[in-house]
TrEMBL record:
Pfam families named among the record's database cross-references: GCIP_N
Record domain Cyclin-D1-binding protein 1-like N-terminal: where: 45-190
Segment forming the signal sequence: none
Compositional bias annotation for Acidic residues: 189-214
Domain of life: Eukaryota
Positions of region (Disordered): 188-217
Name this polypeptide is given: Cyclin-D1-binding protein 1-like N-terminal domain-containing protein
PANTHER family assigned to the protein according to its UniProt record, in alphabetical order: CYCLIN D1-BINDING PROTEIN 1, CYCLIN-D1-BINDING PROTEIN 1
Length: 341
């Protein structure tokens, strides 16, 4: 079956608009300077729901063998008119001052995911009409599901808000730090095993044989036999990483949910930023040891402790700036982070 000119033109117009819109999003779309009483999260929620509805109708219209191209063309035109422009307008309404940089970043990412999913689906329309199936390796229903998932992520942001997004990212960074701690602990234990009688260089040759060019799979340098000083430093680093993991869990439970949850936009944004910093620096600490560069590890450790201390300080006070039942724990954590052992 040949594709109609109407459907072909509508699809090309949609793809062009999506491409331009994604370029705008990637270039840090500026928030609207004019104040508005409209809640952009409500609008984004509605756009996500409409995206699901229009995509469902489009998927039905191009279902082989009974493809209804006129109906498909109308669906594509509706997406072009009622989804893409309002989506960009809603993103522009999200002021980082009012809604937070973290939430705005999450909204831009979710909006781009919706555009990407719609773009991939739209690219398959001509092939489905001509051949009765997609040539892209996945079927029509799978593509519909991808759009639905992206739309659902956009819809969920209204319920999450800034607090929910910061909570999700903090949990993610906590998991990253747990992984860094586990890897460093295993590396230290392997070094002890080697010292107790394991063949020198064991594992190194295996790693090279498996993949000499893979950076992440490259063999890690073990501690030199009898290097008590370096082993002590690694153990101290492990303690601090584990402590900060506990700190992130406490921040999540005491300042991002429950009675002590925060509402201040700047503090929430800073918590998200510091969570990301300590997760990345935790990896840097381990990498310094793995590469046999104790100076690099020490430098990363100092930065790591500084950011973690700032995070503990940020969590001491309740939302109104006064102390509450959780303040003492965060203050004690800050003191523990400043100790050298």
């Amino acid at each position: 079956m040949a594709i109609t000119k109407s459907l072909e033109a509508s699809t090309e117009s949609l793809l062009t608009l999506i491409s331009r819109s994604r370029t705008l999003l990637s270039s840090e779309l500026q928030s609207a300077p004019k104040p508005t009483t409209d809640n952009p999260l409500d609008i984004l929620h509605d756009i996500g729901s409409l995206t699901r509805a229009y995509t469902t109708k489009l998927s039905i219209a191009i279902r082989p063998p009974n493809i209804i191209q006129d109906a498909a063309a109308r669906c594509v035109q509706d997406i072009t008119q009622f989804i893409i422009p309002p989506l960009l307008a809603a993103v522009e309404m999200v002021s980082p001052v009012v809604y937070g940089i973290t939430l705005r970043t999450a909204i831009i990412r979710a909006a781009d995911n919706v555009l990407t999913a719609l773009e991939e689906f739209a690219k398959e329309i001509p092939e489905i009409c001509r051949e009765g199936k997609s040539g892209g390796g996945r079927d029509r229903l799978a593509s519909t599901g991808v759009v639905w998932q992206a739309a659902d992520e956009l819809i969920a942001l209204r319920t999450k808000g800034l607090l929910g997004v910061v909570r999700d990212t903090t949990k993610l960074h906590m998991d990253m730090l747990k992984d860094a701690s586990t890897e460093l602990k295993e590396w230290l234990e392997e070094s002890v095993d080697d010292e107790d009688g394991g063949p020198e260089g064991e594992g190194e040759g295996e790693g090279e044989e498996e993949d000499e060019g893979a950076f992440w799979d490259a063999p890690k340098k073990g501690l030199a036999k009898g290097d008590v000083e370096s082993r002590t430093k690694v153990e101290v680093s492990l303690k601090k990483i584990n402590l900060v993991t506990i700190l992130l869990r406490a921040v999540t439970k005491r300042r991002l949910m429950g009675a002590g949850k925060l509402a201040d936009v700047k503090r929430l944004d800073r918590i998200a930023e510091l969570g990301k910093c300590v997760a990345n620096l935790g990896d840097d600490v381990g990498m310094g040891y793995y590469e046999g560069d104790t100076d690099e590890a020490a430098g990363a450790q100092k930065k790591f402790e500084g950011k973690a201390t700032e995070l503990a300080e940020l969590a001491i006070y309740a939302d109104d700036g006064t102390e509450d039942s959780f303040s003492k724990w965060f203050r004690d954590c800050r003191v523990a982070l400043s100790k050298n052992d």
